[in-house]
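Q: What residues go here?
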């Protein structure tokens, strides 16, 4: 590592921050991809940053909606990638600047001007995702869609998360990245380059023959590992140039990174960031809850910044590895300088105070923020938000947030097709593969969803794959933000294994992969059924509003008393902790395993009859034919016109049940309440 690179490891002179120490990194981030900002306006923001005592500007130069930096060796990056045309998604269409880029001379001038103010500029070239503008300019660097298909690439015209990733399987793509970084490092003297790494949905990589070939060659187990490999390749190239590499925290999903990387923590994955710090890694703090200044004042006001903890939980015990803080300003909904100033001030002043001064009482803090904000307006002309927005009550915050939502939903605002859907689809495909769902079927399921997003028909021979994937998306969304979020990981995964189990049962019955249990698994996806040990437990509510715990027996359950009783004990503890209003309610079961006719065929000590003994039967269900699935592997859709004489007779249970069916009888089922332990 060269002297330039090691400079970021040293503490600089400055004011004491939140932990009573000197922070090296006191910055803000400016996104100029979503909306271009002329150089003169950037200078005014730099003047304001100087007044506030900030020392870093993170310059987000490339994204799906525009490539803003001249690269002489690849002129199409700006000739095509910087032009978005008529697309208005900022809520103030008259002021929007959709097109434009910075010449290399303009970049040198801005970097020099910032340097004269004591501010260093960190460039960000976003990889491997958020690359739509790059791929619109050079589509040959995109992934293939199977052996012969192609993906559409364009400069995106709205906000959101898009699937455009640089192809990690093509050497030409790596060559472009290296050549671009050659020019970036010539223009920016800062000893690190930010390469993004966030929100890289792997939908295309999973379907790309080149990416899959690269994974096989390198022995990589997942597409996240492929991204880690790509990040390491780029990081090693920058290290040869004496530069460190900054990435968003998402990049840790594929595994740990070496110490020439710096992680910018922003949203989830805090456990990975903490592990990175435990291994000696350095981190920039940009928590969305406090530092994202594009958020409404209804979400983050000045008082919330004053109240935020000095050290986040993920950095506790590793305070010396926290380089500092940075406030991002993403500009999807910020079309011009006036709106940018409204969003930044006074909150950037408040954050700057938290970065560089000891804690102080609220009234003193508010007065200092007011002084700095007034100085910014007096010297730069940048006018911030009125004081009425600085410390909102919960009711006031909700009104402000509602007004902001309305502002960004004006009639001229471009809609975002399937906003959030691609991210959830990526999460659902990850889950499907983790659960062991056959890869070909999982990708077919994802293709069905992708077809629906583009208004196309589901792929031929869907076999329920699309419904499967939509339920997994529902489950993934619930795991991230809904009812599943608080449930222990073991129970989450064991419950989700119902999906591959039902696919396996379909294959056993029909001879090919399919999914026909959507009416059942909607309860798993919706966090109403939980697999705990051998049994499943459903929070069941009848039409009469009667609540009970439905006990279900999965086809792979082992009816061993010790295992069953252990399941009951763990289920009771689970309910007491997570659903106390359901704890102690009756446990009921409706199953063919409780059918009275089984007593005529099975020996008294059989596991099925001992299972029955734990229940008091409440209702006989003689017409139920679910036993056909369990005993003969005959799915519900195969029972009409079933040739009974062809049923197998490999076990005594099959022989007896077949004889009953041939005589016109049915195996039936029963409904009962659990009354005693299993023996």
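A:
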């Amino acid at each position: 590592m060269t002297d330039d690179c090691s400079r970021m490891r040293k503490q600089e002179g400055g004011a004491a921050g939140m932990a009573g120490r000197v922070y090296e990194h006191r910055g803000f981030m400016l996104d100029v991809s979503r909306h271009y900002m002329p150089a003169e306006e950037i200078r005014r923001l730099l003047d304001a940053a100087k007044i506030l005592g900030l020392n870093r500007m993170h310059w987000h130069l490339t994204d799906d909606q525009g490539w803003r930096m001249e690269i002489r060796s690849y002129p199409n990056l700006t000739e095509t990638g910087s032009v978005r045309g008529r697309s208005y998604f900022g809520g103030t269409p008259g002021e929007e600047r959709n097109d434009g880029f910075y010449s290399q001379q303009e970049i040198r001038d801005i970097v020099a001007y910032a340097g004269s103010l004591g501010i260093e500029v960190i460039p960000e070239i976003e990889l491997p995702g958020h690359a739509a503008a790059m791929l619109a300019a050079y589509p040959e660097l995109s992934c293939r869609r199977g052996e012969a298909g192609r993906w559409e690439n364009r400069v995106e015209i709205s906000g959101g998360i898009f699937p455009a990733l640089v192809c990690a399987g093509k050497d030409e793509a790596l060559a472009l990245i290296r050549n671009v970084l050659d020019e970036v490092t010539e223009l920016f003297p800062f000893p690190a380059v930010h390469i993004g790494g966030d929100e890289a949905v792997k939908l295309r990589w999973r379907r790309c023959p080149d990416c899959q070939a690269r994974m096989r060659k390198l022995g990589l187990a997942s597409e996240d590992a492929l991204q880690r490999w790509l990040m390491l390749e780029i990081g090693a190239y920058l290290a040869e140039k004496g530069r460190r590499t900054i990435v968003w925290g998402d990049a840790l999903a594929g595994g740990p990174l070496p110490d020439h990387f710096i992680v910018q923590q922003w949203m989830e994955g805090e456990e990975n960031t903490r592990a990175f710090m435990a291994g000696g890694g350095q981190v920039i703090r940009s928590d969305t809850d406090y530092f994202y200044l594009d958020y409404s004042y209804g979400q983050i006001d000045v008082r919330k910044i004053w109240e935020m903890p000095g050290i986040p939980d993920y950095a506790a015990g590793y305070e010396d590895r926290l380089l500092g803080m940075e406030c991002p300003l993403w500009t999807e909904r910020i079309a011009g300088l006036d709106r940018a100033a409204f969003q930044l001030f006074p909150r950037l002043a408040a954050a700057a105070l938290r970065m560089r001064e000891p804690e102080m009482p609220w009234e003193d803090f508010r007065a200092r923020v007011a002084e700095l904000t007034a100085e910014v307006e007096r010297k730069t002309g940048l006018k911030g938000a009125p004081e009425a927005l600085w410390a909102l009550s919960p009711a006031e915050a909700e009104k402000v947030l509602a007004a902001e939502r309305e502002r960004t939903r004006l009639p001229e605002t471009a809609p975002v097709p399937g906003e959030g859907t691609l991210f959830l689809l990526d999460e659902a495909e990850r889950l499907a593969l983790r659960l062991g769902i056959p890869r070909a079927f999982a990708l077919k399921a994802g293709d069905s969803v992708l077809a629906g997003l583009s208004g196309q028909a589901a792929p031929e021979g869907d076999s329920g794959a699309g419904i499967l994937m939509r339920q997994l998306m529902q489950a993934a969304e619930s795991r991230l933000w809904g009812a599943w979020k608080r449930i222990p990981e073991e129970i989450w995964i064991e419950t989700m294994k119902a999906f591959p189990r039902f696919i396996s049962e379909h294959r056993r019955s029909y001879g090919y992969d399919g999914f026909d249990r959507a009416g059942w698994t909607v309860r798993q996806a919706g966090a109403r059924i939980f697999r705990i040990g051998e049994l499943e437990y459903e929070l069941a509510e009848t039409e009469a509003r009667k609540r009970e715990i439905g006990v279900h027996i999965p086809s792979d359950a082992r009816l061993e008393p010790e295992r069953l009783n252990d399941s009951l004990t763990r289920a009771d503890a689970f309910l007491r902790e997570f659903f106390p209003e359901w704890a102690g309610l009756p446990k009921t079961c409706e199953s063919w395993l409780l059918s009275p006719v089984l007593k005529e065929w099975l020996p008294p000590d059989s596991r099925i009859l001992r299972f029955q003994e734990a229940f008091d039967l409440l209702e006989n269900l003689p017409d139920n034919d679910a036993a056909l699935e369990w005993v003969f592997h005959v799915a519900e859709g195969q029972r009409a016109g079933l040739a009974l004489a062809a049923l197998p007779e490999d076990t005594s249970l099959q022989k007896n049940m077949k004889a009953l069916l041939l005589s016109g009888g049915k195996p039936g089922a029963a409904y009962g309440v659990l009354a005693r332990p299993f023996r």
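A: Context that may help when evaluating the design: The mean pLDDT is 92. The chain has three domains: 3-9+19-407, 420-527, 542-679.
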